[in-house]
Amino acid sequence: MRQPQKTRKLDYHRRDNVEHEGYDGVPSNFHGELENQNGVYLFERILSRNNLNQAYLQVVRNKGAAGVDGMTYDQLLPHLKEHREELLESLQNGTFRPQPVLRVEIPKSDGGVRKLGIPTVIDRMIQQAINQVLQPLFDPTFSDNSFGFRPKRSAHQAIIQAKTYYEQGYKHVVDIDMKAYFDTVNHDKLMYYIERKVQDKRVLHLIRQYLKSGIMINGLFEASEEGTPQGGNLSPLLSNIYLDEFDKLLAERGHKFVRYADDCNIYVKSRRAGYRVMESSIKFLEGNLKLTVNRDKSAVGSPLRRKFLGFCIHPTRNGVKIRPHQQAKTTVKRKLKKITKRNRGRSIEVLFKQIRQLMTGWINYYGISTMKSFMTDLNGWLKRRIRQYIWKQWKMPRTKRKNLIQLGIDERKAYEWSNTRKGYWRISASYVLHRSLTDEKLLQLGYMDISKKY
């Protein structure tokens, strides 16, 4: 008796896939010929049924903002049901034209801005479909010292590798900062590097179309003659393909290095060697790859002070450890201060939810660090901020008196403190608030004890 077919659970019902009952006309005509070693049938693999479905599901999982056409990720499926045939036909006959990416600027902690591009959801799906086919083709050839945007690799592995180099005696680092890297990639050189593995002209044409799609800034179109807009699904892979040339050069010269996207640290044993490596690296990056090195931010220094992916190396009596850079600590405290600003006018439930969202992600990332004392101090400071916030919410003296009595403060003390003229921050450290808004009470209200989470 035939066994029922088992299908993998994909978080969404099967009817929410790009393919559904009426999608039998999709070209899935690839069998053995797609295993061609020259990669001339990659285009059929990109447009295959399974690959498009996986790309669609990934775009929906990622969510994200709408592009220049205003279409949101939850509107993608209805659009595909109505226009899938014409979309596939335009891709097959080469008339498909990607829409410009929507340029947005994200403020950086140093006062500058990070320029991101938001493609339309249709372009994100097609880029994801391309990425799913090309990633397995290129990834095995990348350097073992490249950790950014690669399967089964992470920033944690990158900083651990950096720590290993320090333990081996490489106590100086050449920290190279590339200025606006994603906006300065040379298109012709990038296509040349891709063509060495991809011979399918249709795939090359489609990638070139995305590189030339342009940018929409405040409603005005701007052509893109160089760069891979940061924010697209295909950009991380393209950036790794481009910088793999730099990785090969460093490997040929026997250097110890760690690269995560455009963040590259080269570890040497002396400051003199560091300056020599810095000079040769800049020469290659600017001369051969046509990139721009930010000389103000690039430097030869100590891994104990130079920030790499938000971390620093930290030698102790028990061996070399990893710690968050001081800037990372300052940034998270500033964000918590903004969330707990006493005149925000948000409920305590909303406040705790925002703290939980911020600190869960922060602890997950920096949790490999040695930072017990910092987390203890931050937790105490944050609870004081919350007590101040609640005290401000109570507003009127009679409300304060009533709540203090309900929380176990005797009536005389409750009356005295509810009419005090002392400032909010001073009150937040007072005996009366620590006896009423105890740590246990804050936990009951929904507070996440960040020191215990760490």
Could you walk me through the main structural features you see in this protein, from its secondary elements to its overall organization?
- The chain has 454 residues and is α+β, with helices and mostly antiparallel strands.
- Helix content is 49%, strand content 11%.
- The protein has helices spanning 42-46, 49-62, 76-93, 121-138, 155-167, 181-184, 187-195, 201-211, 235-252, 271-287, 326-339, 348-366, 372-394, 397-406, 411-418, 424-428, 431-436, 439-445, 450-453; strands at 101-107, 113-118, 172-177, 215-217, 220-222, 256-260, 263-268, 299-301, 311-316, 319-324.
- β4 and β5 (220-222) form a beta hairpin.
- α2 packs across α4, α7 packs antiparallel against α8 (201-211) and α11 (326-339) packs parallel to α13.
- The model is unreliable at 1-35 (pLDDT under 50).
Topology:
Blueprint: H1 42-46, H2 49-62, H3 76-93, E1 101-107, E2 113-118, H4 121-138, H5 155-167, E3 172-177, H6 181-184, H7 187-195, H8 201-211, E4 215-217, E5 220-222, H9 235-252, E6 256-260, E7 263-268, H10 271-287, E8 299-301, E9 311-316, E10 319-324, H11 326-339, H12 348-366, H13 372-394, H14 397-406, H15 411-418, H16 424-428, H17 431-436, H18 439-445, H19 450-453
Parallel strand pairs: 1-4
Antiparallel strand pairs: 1-2, 3-7, 3-8, 4-5, 6-7, 9-10
Helix pairs in contact: 2-4, 7-8, 11-12, 11-13, 14-15
